[in-house]
């Protein structure tokens, strides 16, 4: 169940109203695109795209279908399901809307084909965040699997130190995660990852139960408390993993952690039901929690946030007309309509100036510029989630991304990590 | 063997009931032979079993076989390649420093064995509670309720939880047990506690309770049916001969309902051993089951190791079912 609730992960479709609406739209879209898929089998045209609920939203692929003139069918999946399908069934999709932190697995498996830069229309406008790892010249690159380390490849799809003429995945939407907290319950503003392990919040803390990510949140906390300095939190050594888990086990036994959540909905419920005071959180959860009249703030820790980056790749099996269409779809994504759509859920687009074209001035000011909202703002489905005067925590896009502490990663010691994480949970 | 038990056995076995008042007439030897080799007219057996066999071979036997084969393959980090290696079995059983006297906890089994053990321990607890709850319920339904219509109605009522989806049944505990849940609010309102109690939810307590609630019906059904099958005249006869209610229960009802207990317990055992989702919902993911371990390794594309865990889980289940079947010889009892 944990991994199989498609669309819940990092998705803002939480309110009953928007859920009903999107369900209805989903049924309609399935009816339409389902027919489209059948036609596609005959005509070998049109695209099937798989990914998380962040980018696979009926409205987005529906708009693409309308703008491009061929059917684009999107399928939102749970993370594990998506990962397995991308890796093992690349004849079942044309477009993979994937994540750079899975690249260490996907690239050597050669399930995707290298994208030719010259075919990407607006490539010049893509920010330096993915090209060289620094959004602004002063930015720090961040530890772990920063996209720029895993994006560039040669004509055969092997990762190279960039820049080159090819990339494996075209950068799209991204965000930075941190902690969410209920200021009434904590009684003080949360400004450091270290608060996650503070004794003051014993029994009122939740951590994300994805070993690769949960361990990084814990490492950020341990480092913030000055207990240990990790050389690379995105690629820890066995000794570092041991130190961390051995530190966490007694805490768990003493009842420090209220729960370990596995999907978006769970993280929202934990805070709404008053079970936790602070927890690992994805940013759309804040709006979801506030919608239930529970105060919630997204922390901007002084140590920096944990970044993640998604993008679009083309299956190695795609060729001919479908390949051209796949490039058209990617270029459409870069064009900004979809980027503006996900911006209203708090995600950023790799070409901000293109997203700006489709955002109102107030929306741009709030989501990208970090200015107070000039009026109430809605999520992509029309529910008001930002009240006039609200300010985005961490400020502007450029400020938030100047200080990414670590990127979501798959460590070389992944097997060992999962083993110790199992031990942590069993303790 | 006590007298009552002997009668019960005899009455239940028509072939052995020769000469008893009310028993079936003795079976003649040639009829016995005929019974054994009789063929029903109609479709030949191979045709009747072909669809199920085909289905099981394609969708059960072959996948199981492939899981077994994959468990020896090598993981590449993004898939697997054919090999014949025991490394994943080794990783399952042997943890670093195991049986190395220099290591502080050199006698601690590997985390995967411990996880399987935790899974097993929980399962036994849940089975015991399920039995304690299900037996009186089934007894009431079959023995106390006289009218068949009422029996059926109440039995269906006991099945109500199964009318809704698994997830709803699990999630429904949250508003009940949470810090601001019904129980806590109630206790605060009557002044029993000042602060909400965390213990009710995301604890071993809530986990056990949810599992029992989810699976107790699986035990009620078989026990109910085996109790309902008991010939009432036996009980009457025992009463006439001066047996106390406890004697009747111990020597007639309990032995005759053992098959139902065994089948019910097998259902619960197999379901709870394979659990991984309930722990996330009501235990806040604060434990690992072998099911979650399989999932975690599957998600990082270490398929061989996930396969090893799956095989170990299956072995544990087979042993458990074997033990239950040893205690109760279902074939004989039925």
Protein model, in words:
The complex is a heterodimer of chains A (427) and B (334). By secondary structure, chain A is of the alpha/beta class. Chain A has two domains: 16-175 and 306-357, D-Maltodextrin-Binding Protein, domain 2, CATH 3.40.190; 177-304 and 402-426, D-Maltodextrin-Binding Protein, domain 2 (3-Layer(aba) Sandwich). Chain A is built from 17 helices and 18 strands. In chain A, strands 1, 2, 3, 4, 6, 9, 10, 11, 12, 13, 14, 15 and 18 form a 13-stranded mixed beta sheet that branches. In chain A, strand 16 (377-378) and strand 17 form a beta hairpin. In chain A, helix 8 (211-224) packs across helix 9 (238-253), helix 9 (238-253) runs parallel beside helix 17 and helix 10 (264-272) crosses helix 11 (284-291). The longest helix of chain A is centred in the N-terminal third of the chain and has 28 residues, at 16-43. The radius of gyration of chain A is 21 Å and the shape is globular. Chain B has 334 residues and is mainly α. Chain B has a domain at 109-333: Orthogonal Bundle (MetI-like fold), CATH 1.10.3720. Helices cover 67% and strands 1% of the residues of chain B. Chain B has helices at 3-12, 29-37, 45-70, 87-93, 111-144, 148-158, 166-171, 174-177, 182-189, 204-228, 232-240, 245-273, 277-282, 290-299, 303-327, 330-333; strands spanning 74-75, 80-81. Chain B has a two-stranded antiparallel ribbon. Chain B is globular and about 70 Å long. The two termini of chain B are 19 Å apart. The model of chain B is unreliable at 14-23 (pLDDT under 50). Classes of the chains: A alpha/beta (427), B mainly alpha (334). Chains A and B meet through helix 3, helix 4, strand 11 and helix 17 of A and helix 5, helix 13 and helix 14 of B.
């Amino acid at each position: 169940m944990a991994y199989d609730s498609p669309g819940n992960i990092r998705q803002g479709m939480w309110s009953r109203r928007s859920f009903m609406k999107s369900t209805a739209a989903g049924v309609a879209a399935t009816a339409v695109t389902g027919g489209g898929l059948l036609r596609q089998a005959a005509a070998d045209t049109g695209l099937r795209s798989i990914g998380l609920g962040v980018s696979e939203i009926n409205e987005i692929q529906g708009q693409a279908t309308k703008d491009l003139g061929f059917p684009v069918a999107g399928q939102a999946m749970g993370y594990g399901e998506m990962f397995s399908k991308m890796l093992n069934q690349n004849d079942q999709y044309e477009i993979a809307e994937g994540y750079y932190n899975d690249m260490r697995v996907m690239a050597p498996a050669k399930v995707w084909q290298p994208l030719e830069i010259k075919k990407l229309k607006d490539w010049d406008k893509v920010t330096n965040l993915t090209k060289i790892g620094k959004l602004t010249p002063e930015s720090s690159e961040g530890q772990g699997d920063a996209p720029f380390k895993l994006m560039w490849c040669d004509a055969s799809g092997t990762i190279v130190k960039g820049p080159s003429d090819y990339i494996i995945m075209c950068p799209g939407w991204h965000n930075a995660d941190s902690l969410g907290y209920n200021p009434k319950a904590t009684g003080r503003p949360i400004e450091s990852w270290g608060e996650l392990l503070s004794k003051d919040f014993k029994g009122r803390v939740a951590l994300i139960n994805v070993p690769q990510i949960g361990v990084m949140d814990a490492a950020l906390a341990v480092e913030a408390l000055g207990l240990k300095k990790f050389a690379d939190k995105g690629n820890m050594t066995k000794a570092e993993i041991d130190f961390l888990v051995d530190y966490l086990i007694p805490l768990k036994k003493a009842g420090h952690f209220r729960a370990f959540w596995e999907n978006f909905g769970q993280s929202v419920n934990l805070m709404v039901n008053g079970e936790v005071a602070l927890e690992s959180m994805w940013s759309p959860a804040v709006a979801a929690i506030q919608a239930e009249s529970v105060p919630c703030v997204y922390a901007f820790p002084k140590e920096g946030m944990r970044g993640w980056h998604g993008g679009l790749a083309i299956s190695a099996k795609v060729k001919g007309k479908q390949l051209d269409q796949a490039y058209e779809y990617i270029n459409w994504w870069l064009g900004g309509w979809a980027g503006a759509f996900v911006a209203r859920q708090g995600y950023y687009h790799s070409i901000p100036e293109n997203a700006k074209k489709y955002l109102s001035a107030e929306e741009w000011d709030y989501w990208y510029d970090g200015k107070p909202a000039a009026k109430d703002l809605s999520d992509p489905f029309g529910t008001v989630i930002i009240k006039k005067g609200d300010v985005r925590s961490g400020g502007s896009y450029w400020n938030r991304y100047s200080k990414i502490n670590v990127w979501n990663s798959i460590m070389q010691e992944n097997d060992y990590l999962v083993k110790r994480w199992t031990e942590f949970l069993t303790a | 063997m006590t007298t009552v038990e002997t009668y019960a056995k005899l009455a239940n076995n028509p072939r052995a009931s020769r000469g008893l008042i009310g028993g079936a007439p003795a079976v003649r030897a040639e009829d016995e032979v005929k019974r054994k080799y009789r063929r029903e007219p109609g479709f030949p057996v191979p045709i009747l079993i072909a669809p199920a066999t085909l289905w099981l071979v394609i969708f059960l036997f072959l996948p199981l076989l492939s899981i077994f084969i994959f468990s020896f393959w090598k993981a590449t980090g993004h898939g697997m390649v054919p090999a014949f290696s025991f490394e994943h079995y080794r990783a399952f059983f042997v943890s670093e420093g195991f049986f190395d006297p220099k290591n502080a906890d050199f006698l601690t089994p590997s985390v995967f064995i411990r996880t399987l053990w935790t899974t097993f321990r929980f399962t036994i607890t849940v089975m015991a509670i399920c039995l304690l709850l299900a037996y009186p319920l089934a007894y009431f339904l079959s023995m106390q309720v006289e009218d068949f219509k009422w029996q059926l109605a109440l039995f269906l009522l006991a099945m109500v939880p199964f009318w809704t989806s698994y997830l709803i049944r699990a999630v429904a505990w949250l508003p009940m047990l949470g810090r601001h849940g019904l129980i806590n609010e109630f206790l605060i309102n009557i002044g029993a506690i000042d602060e909400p109690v965390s213990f009710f939810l995301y604890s071993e307590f809530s986990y056990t309770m949810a599992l029992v609630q989810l699976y107790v019906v699986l035990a009620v059904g078989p026990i109910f049916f085996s109790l309902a099958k008991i010939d009432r005249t036996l009980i009457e006869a025992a009463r006439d001969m001066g047996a106390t209610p406890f004697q009747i229960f111990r020597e007639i009802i309990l032995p005759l309902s053992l098959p139902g207990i065994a089948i019910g317990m097998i259902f619960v055992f197999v379901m709870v051993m394979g659990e991984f989702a309930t722990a996330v919902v009501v235990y806040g993911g604060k434990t690992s089951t072998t099911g979650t371990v399989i999932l975690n390794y599957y998600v990082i594309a270490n398929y061989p190791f996930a396969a090893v865990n799956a095989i170990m889980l299956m072995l544990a289940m087979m042993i458990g079912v074997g033990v239950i079947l040893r205690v109760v010889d279902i074939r004989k009892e039925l």
